[in-house]
Amino acid sequence: MVTYNGVNHLALATGNMDETIRFWRDLLGMRLIAGLGKPGYRQYFFEISRNDMITFFEWPGIEPVVEKEHGRPVRGPFSFDHVSIGLETEDDLWQLKDRLTAANIWVSEVIDHGFIHSIYSYDPNGIPIEFSYHVTGTNVRDEPLMADPEPTSAAQEGSEPQFEKWPRVEKPTPISERKIYPGAGSELFHGKKKK
């Protein structure tokens, strides 16, 4: 079975990398740990935790999105509502709320969702962000909870993966045939790309 260790990175977009750096690095306190670039393109990575990063592409012509209330239903084509970033302690939640307030950035009151306490805000790109602290004594990872009175048919099958719902791998790629191709950034760790 595949073992996951977190969200390696969530990739978003900005039209103003400096403003994005000021918010994510300088206000929120996330280290800027890698930056790639060439004319008309940048990609910068911020460290959320030892296993998780958020990255922003900067492309010409990108404008901030219209702020949408977190979790508010929409219609039509849509793919992203908000990102929630975990915090270690409840004190971290209040400190971050105070930092956002001091920076004159809108931030919600602390909201009790039962198993998490959260605050909501927006980054300079209009991206809806939530910051959440897991309430002591509750852990839906250890004790999954389905509180939907009318869960979907797939949800009724339980919390554990149902691997048999998909075709089995009959011919795994042999080690001798596994090829990895260079991509943006590989030259930073493996020398310059040959032309």
CATH class of the domain at 80-141: Alpha Beta
Helix percent reads: 10-25%
Stated plainly, the CATH topology of the domain at 80-141 is called 2,3-Dihydroxybiphenyl 1,2-Dioxygenase, domain 1
Largest sheet: 4 strands, mixed
Structural class call reads: alpha/beta
Give the number of helices: 3
From the alpha-carbon coordinates, what is the Rg to the nearest angstrom? 20 Å
Shape field? globular
Q: What's the end-to-end separation, in Å?
A: 39 Å
List the strand order in the largest sheet: 1-4-3-2
Strand content: 15-25%
User: Would you report the number of β strands?
Assistant: 8
Helix-strand sequence:
EHEEEEHEEEH
**CATH architecture type of the domain at 80-141:** Roll
Task: Name the average pLDDT.
Answer: 90
